[in-house]
Each structure stands twice: as structure tokens, then as C-alpha cells.
Inverse folding.
């Protein structure tokens, strides 16, 4: 087959953020935009001839177009085989598993995750390495550098592959295998959890609702929850992936999954409510009448993970992102295992997982996962919850209460200010950074600043350093506020303010989170001048 060399010039702004390159679909539709980025990936990772590449996405608008481009480009760049999910579908955790299972050299995950989809919304491309996880910063930095100097991309002349039929096709000299996107992943879940026990729980009358938010987890949830575990048909709602997610934000939080939340707080609530995001790596867990914050979920899952067959006797350590609450730290301490604090983004967990230093990881943004893949995994978290509830025979609410009674409770909230003017957001952060040296000793109402810094992380495995990962203000009473700018948005800036306060087992364990965090909210405003900088008097999203 003839390899076609297409001359090109760089597109600006192709720096991958927290989780890949994310832009408006219209930006990706510019001639050569996706091609430049994909070629930059291939130029950096230089696949050995014949290597396998996995391609999949969350089914959002523009997914199929980029998949066809990427397949032809892979053929021209020397790959021997592409594995692609039927219909162009692979959830992020499923893609991670497929990369690992079939020994691929890497994968392209086409998704903008929790961001909305459709012609006027968002698209994204992320590269994952051979361990199945997001490329580390050294690789994403090299990809970005390459995008600034790229002058050609390579493709072959070939027809589109039929993505809707499982089977094999040739593109140039490269084999394309269209695979069932669900089977491998569902089989993996059966090896991790006690499905028999969960089936008994279901047979005993335990009910749940899983909201797939018209995104990628629908087919996975139908297969695993309804077919393999026996939950009643209709347990999974919004289970068909739509290109625009039905016009919603596929973000499983209390704002965008409000219907589920309202159901769970009402008289018709099933035993468990859960949801996942656009690409299937996030999870929302709500018991009847009880929302579990993602930070608490990480701690509760870690404390009980050894109940699940694949984790028996092997909790090696826990990792959490810096803004995630310290609830998991208390579990690690009690179990005598290390707890690592990483920057935001799953790419920072990869080395710890590969080295066997941690078994479970999590982020306050509704991401939880383990060493079974190298991505966070929404359905995995739901299944682990089910396994634990089945074996312990208690409700979500009772599990939470018993957890807090033993470890204490980290009251926690995140306030997001979305679509803020970028210059205003930058000015706020710059001022905060400049004020850091003078903050210790400052009094904000009942709080006194003990320590303030800009978080930097040294990877304990490869010793790489990631600086500037968010501003932390720690108070003498152990509470804290954290400030970061989002790295996944496509419009303006999003300011995230993370608020946390610990209550010991002897304290108030069932108080209102908003009330408990009043002093921290006021301190955040006083320290950062959010109203003054952004003109916003209240956050857009509170989770
Ligand atoms: C957000 C979350 C972060 C998560 C990332 C990707 O990043 O805060 O914890 O890893 O999204 O999640 P940021 O930079 O916007 O705060 V996903 O499910 O969008 O791939
Ligand atoms: Co996601």
C-alpha cells in the first residue's frame, strides 16, 4: 500500500490537559487538527513495526470520523493491528483492559469524558501507554512539543472500516479487528467480584437504579447488572449511548444526576443508586437517603476491599489525589499501609500501581479504581459496593455510619466556578501564590492558617517532579481549603475550591455538610477574593 504524506502546519493549543486534549468539536473539525495531534502521538511513541493499537471512544459526536482517520494513520505509521470496539465504543476502563489483555503498545481513547457532546460541544483525544494507563507527563509534554513543529502526517488510501460488525478487515497491510466492547470487560469483572453472592442479594429483593446518562456505560451496565447479576430489566436507565448524551452533561454529580438524587432521597428509593460519566470511568454512589461523597467512597471501599475475592489479603496501599479528602488516610493508618498523595489526574497513579505500591486509588471527582486496570473505573466501583453490601448484609447508610463511628468523618465539598474569564482566574491564582508566604498565622474567623503552599509532587518510583498542582491552605484545627484551575475545560476557566473539615468519632457525625463547612467557605473567600476577581457570588456547581 502506498503511504501518503500530507503536508501540514502546526495548530496552536494542542497541549494535553488533565486528561488528554479537549476542545470544541468545531476545533477538531478543522482540516488536519486531529491528524496533527495523532501524528504527533505516533512520532513520539514510535511504535515498533507490527505493534497493536487499541482505539475506542465514548460514542460522542465526531467519534466515528476520528476513528476512521486514526485507523488509516495507524496503518501508515507501521502498526500491525488495530483493535477497535464495535460501533466505535470502548469505555475508558474497558480500553485500558483491552490494551493490557492483548499486549497492545498503547491506545487512543476518544472522549471528553464528563463534558457535554454534540456538534457544538466537546471532543477529546487521549493516548494511553502499554500499561493501559494515561500517558505520563513526560510523554504528554513530548507530544505537545511535537505538535508545535509538525510539518506532515501519514495516511493510507483505504475505505472506511465497517465499525458496526464484529470481525476482521485489512487496511493497507494492517489488520483491523472490530471487537465486542463489553465481553472482555464483563469477564474481568467476574474474576474480581463474588457474582454469586451479589446474585443472592438481588434475589433477596435488593434493588438499584443505574443511570448511564445516555453515555458509554449503558451496554456494559445492561450486560453486567441486568444479564449477569439478575437485576430487573429497567434497573439501568438512559442505557443507550447517544452522540449528544441527550443534551445533558454526562457528569454523575448531584447537579447533573439530580433525577437520580431526588429518587434516592424520596419514598420510592431503591437500595442503591449509581451513575457513571461520558466515558465510564467515574461513579456516583447514593444509598437510600444517603449520598456518599467520592472521597468517603474511596475510604469505605478501601476499608472493605478485602471482602472481594480478587483483593483478599492484598491491600498494599492507598493513593488519593491531593484535593481528595483525608478520609482514606485514616483507613491506611488503621490498616498499617501507606497512603500516597498525588496531583489531580489518573496519570499520577500509574507508577504506584505498576510498582505494586497501591491497590486502590481515588479522586474527589468521583473516580475510584484499582490495579485491575490503569484507569478509574465507574462500574468497578459500583460492583465493589455491591459485593461489600452483599457480604456484610447492611445498607449503604449503615455502612457509612459504622465507618464514621470508627474513623471519624471528613466533611467535604467542592465549589466550582465555571466559565470564568481566564485572565480573572489567572489573576486570582497569581495573587494567592504571591500571598502564600504571609498566610501562616493569618486569622479567618475561627480559623488560623497553619501552613500554605503550592502543591508539588515527586513520583516515588521515577522521581519526576510535578510542581504547581494547586494551592493548599491548611488550618490549625486540621481543616483546609484547596484552590485549583481545571485542566479539562474547553471554555474560559473553571476555578475549583475544595473544602474539608474532620470530625473525630466523638464529634458530630451526622450534621449538614454546608453548615459544617461555613467557616472554611468564608476563609476561602477571604483568602482568595473570589467575588472580587470573578464577580461571582456563588459557585455554579457544588458537589
Ligand atoms: C477533572 C477532575 C480530575 C479528573 C479529570 C478527568 O480534572 O478534577 O480529578 O481526573 O477531570 O476526569 P480538572 O483538571 O478539570 O479538575 V474524566 O472522567 O473527565 O476523564
Ligand atoms: Co471520565
Amino acid at each position: 500500500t502506498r503511504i501518503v504524506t500530507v503536508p501540514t502546519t502546526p495548530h496552536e493549543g494542542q497541549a494535553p490537559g488533565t486528561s488528554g486534549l479537549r476542545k470544541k468539536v468545531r476545533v477538531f473539525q478543522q482540516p488536519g487538527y486531529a491528524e496533527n495531534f495523532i501524528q504527533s502521538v505516533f512520532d513520539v511513541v514510535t511504535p515498533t513495526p507490527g505493534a497493536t493499537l487499541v482505539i475506542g471512544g465514548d460514542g460522542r459526536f465526531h467519534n466515528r470520523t476520528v476513528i476512521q482517520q486514526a485507523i488509516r494513520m495507524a496503518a501508515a505509521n507501521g502498526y500491525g493491528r488495530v483493535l477497535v470496539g464495535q460501533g466505535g465504543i470502548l469505555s475508558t476502563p474497558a480500553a485500558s483492559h483491552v490494551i493490557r489483555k492483548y499486549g497492545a503498545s498503547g491506545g487512543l481513547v476518544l472522549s471528553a469524558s464528563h463534558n457535554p457532546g454534540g456538534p457544538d460541544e466537546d471532543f477529546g483525544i487521549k493516548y494511553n501507554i502499554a500499561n493501559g494507563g494515561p500517558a505520563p507527563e513526560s510523554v504528554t509534554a513530548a507530544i505537545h512539543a511535537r505538535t508545535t513543529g509538525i510539518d506532515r502526517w501519514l495516511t493510507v488510501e483505504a475505505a472506511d472500516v465497517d465499525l458496526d460488525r464484529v470481525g476482521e478487515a485489512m487496511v493497507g497491510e494492517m489488520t483491523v479487528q472490530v471487537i465486542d466492547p463489553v465481553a472482555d470487560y464483563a469477564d474481568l469483572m467476574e474474576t474480581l467480584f463474588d457474582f454469586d453472592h451479589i446474585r443472592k442479594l438481588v434475589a433477596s429483593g435488593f434493588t438499584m437504579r443505574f443511570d448511564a446518562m445516555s453515555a458509554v456505560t449503558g451496554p456494559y451496565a445492561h450486560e453486567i447488572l441486568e444479564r449477569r447479576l439478575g437485576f430487573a430489566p429497567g434497573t439501568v436507565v438512559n442505557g443507550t449511548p447517544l452522540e449528544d448524551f441527550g443534551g445533558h452533561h454526562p457528569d454523575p454529580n448531584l447537579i447533573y444526576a439530580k433525577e437520580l438524587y431526588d429518587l434516592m432521597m424520596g419514598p420510592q428509593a431503591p437500595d442503591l443508586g449509581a451513575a457513571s460519566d461520558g466515558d465510564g470511568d467515574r461513579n456516583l454512589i447514593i444509598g437510600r437517603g444517603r449520598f456518599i461523597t467520592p472521597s468517603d467512597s474511596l475510604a469505605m471501599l478501601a476499608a472493605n476491599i478485602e471482602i472481594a475475592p480478587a483483593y483478599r489479603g492484598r491491600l498494599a496501599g492507598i493513593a488519593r489525589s491531593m484535593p481528595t479528602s483525608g478520609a482514606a488516610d485514616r483507613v491506611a493508618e488503621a490498616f498499617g499501609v501507606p497512603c500516597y498523595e498525588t496531583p489531580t489526574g489518573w496519570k499520577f497513579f500509574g507508577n504506584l500501581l505498576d510498582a505494586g505500591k497501591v491497590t486502590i486509588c481515588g479522586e474527589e471527582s468521583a473516580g475510584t479504581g484499582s490495579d485491575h486496570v490503569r484507569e478509574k473505573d465507574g462500574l468497578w466501583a459500583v460492583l465493589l459496593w455491591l459485593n461489600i453490601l452483599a457480604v456484610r448484609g447492611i445498607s449503604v447508610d449503615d455502612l457509612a455510619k459504622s465507618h464514621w463511628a470508627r474513623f471519624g468523618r471528613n466533611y467535604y465539598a467542592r465549589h466550582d466556578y465555571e466559565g470564568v474569564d481566564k485572565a480573572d482566574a489567572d489573576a486570582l491564582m497569581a495573587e494567592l501564590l504571591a500571598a502564600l508566604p504571609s498566610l501562616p498565622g493569618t486569622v479567618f474567623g475561627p480559623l488560623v492558617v497553619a501552613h500554605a503552599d503550592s502543591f508539588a509532587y515527586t513520583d516515588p518510583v521515577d522521581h519526576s517532579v510535578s510542581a504547581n498542582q494547586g494551592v493548599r491552605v491548611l488550618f490549625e484545627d486540621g481543616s483546609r481549603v484547596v484552590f485549583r484551575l481545571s485542566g479539562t475545560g474547553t471554555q474560559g476557566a473553571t476555578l475549583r475550591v475544595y473544602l474539608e473539615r474532620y470530625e473525630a468519632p466523638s464529634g458530630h457525625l451526622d450534621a449538614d455538610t454546608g453548615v459544617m463547612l461555613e467557616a472554611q467557605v468564608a476563609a476561602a473567600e477571604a483568602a482568595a477574593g473570589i467575588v472580587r476577581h470573578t464577580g461571582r457570588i456563588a459557585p455554579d456547581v457544588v458537589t
User: Anything to note?
Assistant: Residues 3-181 form a domain with the Alpha-D-Glucose-1,6-Bisphosphate; Chain A, domain 3 fold (CATH 3.40.120.10). DSSP finds 18 helices and 27 strands in the chain. The pocket of cobalt (II) ion (ligand 2) is lined by residues 92, 113-114, 277-279, 281-282 (CB under 6 Å). The first helix runs from residue 25 to 28.
